[in-house]
Amino acid sequence: MEIRLDNKTVVITGGSGVLGRAMVWALFEAGANVAVLDLRQPAEGGALPTSPGKSGNRLRFIQADVLNRESLQSAAEKVLTEFERVDILINGAGGNRPDATTSAERSFFDLPAEALRFTMDLNLLGTILPSQVFGRIMAEQKTGNVVNITSMNAFRPLTRIPAYSAAKAAVSNFTQWLAVHMAQEYSSNIRVNAIAPGFFLTDQNRFLLTDKATGELTERGRKIIAATPLGRFGEPDELIGTLFYLISDSSRFVTGVIIPVDGGFNAYSGV
Beta strands 9-13 and 88-91: pairing type? Predict the structure, then answer.
């Protein structure tokens, strides 16, 4: 069944990233107005779509910082001026930092507090603040749909990335909390769910999973593939079916769930 999003307005944070761009293209091609919030525009070769719309474009790139409420409020005003409402919020901003990652050179005991704090804030606070700003609009509308992007780390913490794992687990918990809060306090027509991607090669994890010099998988990358029953990394467009399910009326009685898209990783015990 084809899902159309004509006349729907979607706000997506982190829309310039690898996974975010795949979502933006799919949403745009389904007819949605799309507001991409990010600190940077996509790198060369990662262009976003363009097409005539209300004021020249159905897609707007808005530079915004998910860790700054004033920046998000300014972005929200631009979205409302351009598209008049917000139907869907996708909290896709997140990531990890190399200096928040343990290694042979850097033990857990030596991870800098600033790197840990940034990683925790980017993933957790960077989901909560947009949910406050755009969730208020949905509360006033009495309708809306929020999809958070968490991680397989929320189910099974991985080695080496303590702050990222802890933050994504918190995002999953927050998803459930916000689903109950919005439905009980504002409207049963506001739903909140999350997608937990398994392993996709992105700008944030490529340094852990592939060798920069050779392009071959690292030992960590090989272990992940061995623990993934489908035997490969995911492709960004393989998130789209789950995303469209969650933002469509097909899931209108679904709220507060976290859906893995992981090639079976979470189901596999290793034997």
Answer: parallel
* pLDDT, one tens digit for every residue, the chain (271 residues): 688 999 999 999 999 988 999 999 999 999 999 999 999 876 544 556 654 444 447 999 999 999 999 999 999 999 999 999 999 999 999 999 999 999 999 999 999 999 999 999 999 999 999 999 999 999 999 999 999 999 999 999 989 999 999 999 999 999 999 999 999 999 999 999 999 999 988 766 676 777 777 878 888 889 999 999 999 999 999 999 999 999 999 999 999 999 999 999 999 998 8
Return the residue matching tokens 């989901």.
127
Domains, the chain, in order of start with CATH, read 9-267 (3.40.50.720)
At 147, phi and psi to the nearest 5? Answer: -125, 115
Residue 226 φ/ψ, nearest 5 degrees: -65, -25
Residues with active-site annotation: 164
